[in-house]
Amino acid sequence: MVQGGESSVLVLEYKAKGNKAQYQAIEEAIKTTQFVRNKCIRYWMDASREDNINNAALSRYSTVLRADFPFVAALNSMAVQAAAERAWFAISRFYDNCKKNKPGKKGYPRFQHDNRSVEYKTSGWSLHPTKRRITFTDKKGIGKLKLMGKWDIHTYPVKSVKRVRIVRRADGFYVQFCVDVECKEQVSSTGQEIGLDFGLEHFYTDSNGYHEPNPCFLRKAEKQIKHAQRRIYKKEKGKNGRKKARNRYARKHLKISRKRTEHAKSRARHVMRSNDLCVYENLQVKNMVRNHHLAKSINDAGWRQFRSYLEYFAQKYGKVALAVEPHYTSQQCPQCGTMVKKSLSTRTHTCKCGCVLQRDHAAAINILRKGKEKIATSGHGGSKVSKRKPRNARGVETSVQSGAILIE
Ligand SMILES: [Zn+2]
Questions:
Q1: CA-CA distances (angstroms) from residue 47 to 58, 67, 69, 81, 95?
Q2: pLDDT tens, 45-60?
Q3: What is the CA radius of gyration of the chain?
Q4: For position 384, what pLDDT does the model report?
Q5: What is the model's pTM?
Q6: What is the CA(335)–ligand 1 centre distance, in A?
Q7: Which of 35, 106, 343, 350 is buried deepest, with most CB atoms within 10 A?
Q8: Which CATH architecture is the domain 193-215+260-378 placed in?
Q9: Domain regions of the chain by residue span
């Protein structure tokens, strides 16, 4: 559950404009990042258990790399450290998986060959007073880049910028600012509560019976992606034409994912502004059946994003967003509680008690009820509530992670 009042990470992204030499310099910095990361992984692999390689050891090793390789020394020292941290991230994730005895592959750290970004921390760059330019000041020679985009980074103090990342995408380079913000924005309480059911027919159906339609770009996207995909295979392997077709395909994907993000964000903002409590199904990616139906898989991604934005805005507005297990929510009668078994194709819930509702509407009501029950039970006694985590007014455990979700 996510609830307001904590600080959070906001990511502002701009397209970067520079010249060919500058783009080349960015590529160099990205390559160096990958080099440092991989060297750290190698260092860890070669070390013995007693060496007890940890984050600090990798950080020390990164200074050795700076001394040994001039092209590493040319990259800002904190950016080199950030690259070493990436290695530590992969290693510690592997350790965690082993510790938790996660079934299947444990994710043994691999060497990376397709790195697409370089990350600076609080040094190695400066923002221009015109508010539309950033200069990278280390010896990689990236220099001054123009920033194109609608977010205004300068509504935030420069010292709240914790990281600056340059990312390569199919259509060019982007600069991301990770800003630490005190997110709370006072939005008045509305006294409204809502349950959401995610479906294929509609993007979601709420407990008031409203159906949010699927965004129209979804169906269009399916066609376009399939078309672009076919064109890749029509081109001869290894030829330039194929490379171009591949790039076109990647751009199409990018365009759709941006539209999806905008859609998820605007819908989630609306929901959390007009309700004090929002309950939805806990759709776990792992539990979801892998499917080859493109429209559905695009939709799945949309829901996941929608959900993280719900949590993000709940935090920002000081509201409550809560996920519940989806079991039986589509079978139970919201009026009398009787189980009314129905197949996926049955679109109406009809109960002996006289309750007749559209299927998803009934599910959304059940989801809201489940959420309120969850809050009521954890509010009394609170034995399950960890003392270290922040709580909301009802004493329910909360987690503050919405910012993290938004980064990738
Ligand atoms: Zn009933």
A1: 11, 20, 21, 19, 15
A2: 999 888 889 999 999 9
A3: 25
A4: 30
A5: 0.58
A6: 5
A7: 35
A8: 2-Layer Sandwich (3.30)
A9: 2-181, 193-215+260-378
